[in-house]
Amino acid sequence: MNKNELKQSASDEPLSAKGQMILEAALKLLIETGDAGLTMRKLAESAGMRLSNVQYYFKTRDDVLTAMITRYFDDCTQDLVRLTQESEAATPRERVLFLIRAGLAHGQDISDMCRSFREIWAISSRNAIIDTCLMDYYRGFANVLADFALPQGIDERSRARMKSLLVPYFEGYSITARSLPLGAADTAEMLTDLAMSVTSQSEST
């Protein structure tokens, strides 16, 4: 099975209740034990199933990882979409500040989400299929940010600047936040100023 087939099977085919339970057990195992602890045998034990039953749904560890990560990223993206839909921010600056506050909030404690992403990053450095899933997620995440933050008609250069500033900052902040001299509130204001500056510069050139 090639990369495209793996990705399509993970995202397009509906999973049964047992299949979903296996993926939930896999994510829990990844968070608790890390990449090394996520084996097919340990997954079967964690899900309370026989190994052969797990392999009926997912033949290999790569199949489990691809389906689990794709599903997890879909959930993360939908959470961000729901968050933007609930926002009352009206102006471009208010929308950017809203996004930045939400993005920085994840960096203030070591949540299961942070642990999950760190393990996924580690896996992606050794696994091309998972790396593709990760890059696709970041592209989609960046598009959601830009669609919400910037009004209709803003040029693609401004959108590209916004994405290139915010996405890597959010990811780096989740690792370094506790060591930085500025608190989250001051950092959010500073980063909002930068984001508005780079997009306005793009519009004027």
Describe the structure.
The protein is mainly α and 205 residues long. It has one domain (3-204): Tetracycline Repressor, domain 2. It contains 10 helices and no strands. The chain is elongated, with a radius of gyration of 19 Å. The relative contact order is 0.11. Residues 39-58 bind DNA.
Question: Nutshell version of this structure?
Answer:
This protein has helices at residues 3-12, 17-33, 40-47, 51-57, 61-86, 92-105, 112-124, 128-149, 156-176, 184-204.
Shape: elongated
Task: Bin the strand percentage.
Answer: under 5%
CATH class: Mainly Alpha
Q: Do you know the CATH topology? A: Tetracycline Repressor, domain 2
If you average the pLDDT, what whole number results?
86
Spell the H/E element sequence.
Answer: HHHHHHHHHH
What is the count of distinct domains? 1
CATH superfamily label: Tetracycline Repressor, domain 2
Radius of gyration from the CA trace?
Answer: 19 Å
**Secondary-structure arrangement, i.e. CATH architecture:** Orthogonal Bundle
Helix content: over 70%
* Number of DSSP strand runs: 0
How far apart lie the N and C ends?
A: 47 Å
- Class from helix and strand fractions: mainly alpha
The number of helical runs is 10
Describe the sheet with the most strands: none
Low-confidence parts lasting 5 or more residues at pLDDT below 50?
1-11
